[in-house]
Amino acid sequence: MSMATQTADPVSLADVLSIHRIGGSEFLGPARTTSAPRIFGGITTGQAVLAARATVTGHRPIHALQTTFLRPGYSDSPVTYRVDPLHDGASVSTRLITATQHDRIIFTGTASFQQPEHGLAHQLTTFSGPRPEDIEPTARAVGKSRSSSWLSALERTTMLEFRFPDTPIRMSTARGVAVDPHQKFWVRPVRPLPKDSSVHAAVLGYLSDALLLSTSLGPHRKTLQDPGMQFATINHSVWFHSTCPADDWLWYEQEGIWAGSARAVCRGSIFRRTGELAATVVQEGLIRVTPE
């Protein structure tokens, strides 16, 4: 093995989300060896953003994405993304994305892109929290607490860095403690991203899925890893409010606003360091507890 091969650049989230055109409006997300057999929903979301954007001409950033997860995807096989143009107006373009694996549809989504315009502006939500630099990194926190080792594993598998000002819901429920279905944290990719606004939008879509569904388990003293627990995203929507550098620290506020009928609905707000609201997220997921 050559020295150049041994010292190859480490894989970044841009590499993980990368797709390539296989003809017309079809794109391929290659199979990747991961520690989990199922594809993390954020990967499918991010690749759908990239596929749809590749069919839109001009400077029209994504402003909305509504998705439905129909079947699990598996990391040992490629995923094909077909993009159909639904509309190209004077300022807005809309695309339908269909993801298939082994000739079965696993995901559908509708993405909308808008030419930047000036208009009325306000945001109702604001945030106040400690700077990420003032919160202990996970590596040091894990060294002090065995119960936080799950977070170290999460960072490795998602390639995201997290900093929690308060105890994460997952740590409380693992100890059998009931907590309110709210959590807040700073998050960013472990490695920098290329200067491509489409990639940053895709990564924002990717990280919007991180930990959101588990927020609903706070009052129930359960984790998604408990025996007899079945969970899956049913639908996931992201509204992109502004072009956002996704490799800087982002403040993510999450809340589980409802649970029942083996489902849960969670909502998230993602802010830039400056306090500007970057995205709003709503997710519905299946959370079913089966007899052990």
From TrEMBL:
Alphabetical list of CDD domains matching this protein: Thioesterase_II_repeat1, Thioesterase_II_repeat2
Transmembrane segments: none
Keyword Iron-sulfur appears in the UniProt entry: no
Boundaries of every Acyl-CoA thioesterase 2 C-terminal domain copy: 166-286
Pfam families per the UniProt record, alphabetical: 4HBT_3, Acyl_CoA_thio
Record key words, sorted: Hydrolase
UniProt KW Hydrolase keyword: yes
Ranges where the Acyl-CoA thioesterase-like N-terminal HotDog domain occurs: 34-114
UniProt superkingdom: Bacteria
InterPro entries: Acyl-CoA_hotdog, Acyl_CoA_thio, HotDog_dom_sf, TesB_ACOT8-like_N, TesB_C
Entry similarity comment: Belongs to the C/M/P thioester hydrolase family.
The protein's name in its UniProt record: Acyl-CoA thioesterase
Lineage: Bacteria, Bacillati, Actinomycetota, Actinomycetes, Mycobacteriales
